[in-house]
Design a protein that fits this description.
single chain, 135 residues, alpha+beta, 7-stranded antiparallel β-sheet, 7 strands, 40% helix, globular, binds 2-acetamido-2-deoxy-beta-D-glucopyranose, actin monomer binding, signal
């Protein structure tokens, strides 16, 4: 890993850890906006290349997500929101929240028992913060 990548990684790791530290999100990751590089991950949250590319494509055109759902770590989630900033998926009581910033995609998972709206607010706030910082 280059020094630059290392700095980005350490910096981003603080943010995925921030998300999981809230107790509302149990897993989180940050990818570069084209999905080719994972910048940080908490609790071994890692998507298959096809899964992250499904999201990258979904931010541009959500019609496949509405039709076929999204897939995270092998689990299919129904698409409940998809626009050029936010893609939310739900499977029974758990869900995933994916938010695109200027240079990154935040992906976080909440377990059953958490209010989806509360979890979404946390991820959207971090996305706003990163956008404000130029990321
Ligand atoms: C992340 O957590 C640190 C403390 O560990 C805190 O100082 C910081 O404000 C948090 N950042 C965000 C964006 O919540
Ligand atoms: C989005 O993708 C669908 C299915 O692949 C396609 O039919 C549609 O034309 C696309 N929409 C745009 C705006 O590109």
């Amino acid at each position: 890993m280059s020094l630059f990548a290392n700095i980005i990684f350490s910096f981003s790791l603080a943010y995925t850890d921030n998300l999981t530290a809230t107790g509302k999100l149990d897993k989180a990751a940050i990818y570069g906006s084209d999905g080719s590089a994972m910048w940080a991950s908490s609790n071994n949250f890692k998507l298959e290349p096809s899964e992250i590319q499904e999201l990258v494509g979904g931010f541009a055109n959500a019609s496949n997500l509405w039709a076929s759902g999204l897939h995270i770590q092998g689990q299919k989630y129904f698409c409940i929101r998809a626009d050029d900033r936010s893609i939310y998926g739900k499977h029974e009581a758990e869900g995933v929240l994916c938010v695109k910033t200027k240079q990154a995609i935040l992906i976080a998972h909440y377990p059953g028992g958490i209010q989806p709206g509360e979890a979404a607010k946390i991820v959207e706030q971090l996305a706003d913060y990163l956008i404000g910082q130029g990321y």
